[in-house]
Amino acid sequence: MTIWAATDWYAFFFLLFALLACGFAAAVLFTSNIVRMAFYLTLSLGATAGLFFLAGAEFVGVMQLMIYVGGTLVLLVFGVMLTARAPFLSLRPRSGEWIVSLIAGGTLLFLLIASAFGVRNWRTASDSGPLPLAEAQTATAVGAGLTGVRVDRLNRDAAGHALSQLPHTDSGYLLPFVIVSVHLLVVLVGAAYLARAKVRRRSATESTASVEG
Amino acid sequence: MCGLLAQITVSHYLVVGAVLFVTGVLCMATKRNALGVLMGIELLLNGANVNFVAFGSKLLRADALGLDGQLIPLFVIVLAAAEAAVALAIALNFYNNHTTVDVDKAEELKG
């Protein structure tokens, strides 16, 4: 019972999701079977969504699960299924490439971790005491930010109440939101055009030729 | 918990982001299957997203980025979906024309 009470559940869940994410990412790297790579990638991205929940960004975590795990990875798995023939199921990299890439990757990883612990402001925790597991509700603020209103940066008076007028400097993310929407539409139309079946046109020309003949 | 994990801070999230980023880079560099390269890109973008969320989290740090740290990952996720769709269409086209997905065989444009 005392162990149950003394355990820091935030650290426990952080360690669980971090190990799952990093372990399955390493599994994606070290397996050469493309179908297993897709499966490990699903688990790694799901564990990353758990990390987002822990950091208080629950809307981003839900979007990660819905768009990434539910959309992008299904697309990737379809690509794997459409191209998975026996010679391409496991393409092994050359052994010389392994050595060079592991040296370069290890150096980069060492550099990033050293810099992550190098800044004192990032190492010290906030003074708010033990971290709550479920605290933030950010969906409304995120939605307002996407439509151009930054509710987290409202002008406040001395008592802390939000004033009615919005600051002029913060325009929110309305323009990037519109741009990314149009970009997604164009890209999906282009992808459908690129991946369309080319047999149909040939059969159409053949049919017209037969009609003319 | 041991001393290093006494309090979870931004640095711990940055380490997870660094591991995801490096595995993504190595996947892109070593995989010969075009779809494996795509999966490496997804891992890499996720490492960047972990960093953004950690810097934006008010739970971890008092002077956090705030809402920017949650809005930018949303754009990254949407752009990753778009990028995956186009890259998959190109890979399928390449497979239809050359009956292979080995990126080392794509050398027609090599100078």
Please summarize what this structure is.
The complex is a heterodimer of chains A (213) and B (111). With 213 residues, chain A is an all-alpha fold.
The name CATH uses for the topology of the largest domain in chain A is: Four Helix Bundle (Hemerythrin (Met), subunit A)
Sum up the overall morphology of chain A in one term. Answer: extended
What is the CATH architecture annotation of the largest domain in chain A?
Up-down Bundle
Number of helices of chain B: 3
Strand content of chain A: under 5%
Q: Total domains of chain A, how many? A: 3
Cα(first) to Cα(last) distance of chain A is 89 Å
Order of helices and strands of chain A: HHHHHHHHHH
Q: Tally the structural domains of chain B.
A: 1
Provide the CATH superfamily of the largest domain in chain A.
NADH-ubiquinone/plastoquinone oxidoreductase chain 6, subunit NuoJ
How far apart lie the N and C ends of chain B?
Answer: 57 Å
- The chain-level structural class of chain A is mainly alpha
CATH fold topology of chain B: Helix Hairpins
Characteristic key phrases:
heterodimer; A: 213 residues; mainly alpha; Four Helix Bundle (Hemerythrin (Met), subunit A); extended; B: 111 residues; Helix Hairpins; 68% helix; elongated
What topology emerges from the helices and strands here?
The complex is a heterodimer of chains A (213) and B (111).
Chain A: H1 2-6, H2 9-30, H3 34-54, H4 58-83, H5 86-89, H6 95-116, H7 120-123, H8 139-146, H9 174-194, H10 199-212
Chain B: H1 10-30, H2 34-56, H3 68-98
Helix pairs in contact in B: 1-2, 2-3
